[in-house]
Amino acid sequence: xxxxxxxxxxxxxxxxxxxxxxxxxxxxxxxxxxxxxxxxxxxxxxxxxxxxxxxxxxxxxxxxxxxxxxxxxxxxxxxxxxxxxxxxxxxxxxxxxxxxxxxxxxxxxxxxxxxxxxxxxxxxxxxxxxxxxxxxxxxxxxxxxxxxxxxxxxxxxxxxxxxxxxxxxxxxxxxxxxxxxxxxxxxxxxxxxxxxxxxxxxxxxxxxxxxxxxxxxxxxxxxxxxxxxxx
Length: 231
Description:
By secondary structure, this protein is mainly alpha-helical.
């Protein structure tokens, strides 16, 4: 299932969400212009679980975690991630506030990367992508707006339909897929690349917890402004 848009109005301009999307796109352009130097550069700047657990210098490794959150492996990778961030991130920023949302997003990405490293300690593959942080946004959305309607593209065998479904069904289905795919990948070769399922799982769970700690449940949506009529 692929979300196309949600029907959940916001009251503030989500400029932090716009900034995060812009930074991801700019970093992707930087990757593209590297050409043949992309892979050597990736090894230097991206997070690698095995290198992290080998006990290297802490500060460079922490920096690599945050840099990796803005790197992507191709157009489909960044396109899918930015679509989810565009649809669901604005409502989380609207509820938490601009700066708390930025901290929340980075914290989810950080914890998601650690979850990936914990379950793949021997992997020497660079771990890149915003999906761990975005999974945190999805987890927060599930907690705050489970009944929000989301226009979703649904493939059914040879047909594709578009329907509005509650966020709890879409995001719950997404998490179940990540959960079973993650546990099913345990024991597989760790240096063949692929999807970092445990980053998705860790980020999603982190988002569900952190949005509560950040006061998301206490910050109810402000009442609409009064209507004025001229005579």
